[in-house]
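I'm stuck. Protein, please.
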Amino acid sequence: MMLARLIGTLMGVGYLRPAPGTWGSLFSLPYAWVLHVIGGFPLLALGVGIAFLKGWWATSRMTAGSSDHDPSEIVVDELVGQWIALLPLSYAAWSMDISILAMWPGWIAAFALFRLFDITKPGPVGWADRRGDALGVMLDDVIAGIFAALGVLALAALYHGVL
């Protein structure tokens, strides 16, 4: 259970108050940067998959036998969603061989959009959240991350005059 708690709470970040989900999202940003710098887009994408599987396992362990299917201290799902929101930036930086930090407005957009979709839970995000199981805990943030990534792409297209 100790390992599941370390993973699920991102080494205790989930116990920070107020807004543990926002702390979890902030915590994930420097780790996304490290993964991108070490291995570019492929490593960050691989990290998303591994974090999802470990988060699903940890969430299952932490909620087993509990009536609360989504305790606020579980924030590994925020890490997965936030990393998904950053994937368009990572791909662009990796494919064009530029610093991902040069796209700092995209980082702000990815963070703000992910938090917006995670908190408001529109459409399929809310559906996943209402599943009431560990997979639903992870999926709602995955979908919120995908929505945020699409928002980042749309904002980048507007900024660069593609639209």
User: Anything to note?
Assistant: The helical segments are 2-8, 20-63, 76-96, 104-120, 124-129, 134-159. The chain has a mean pLDDT of 95. Residues 20-63 form the longest helix (44 residues).
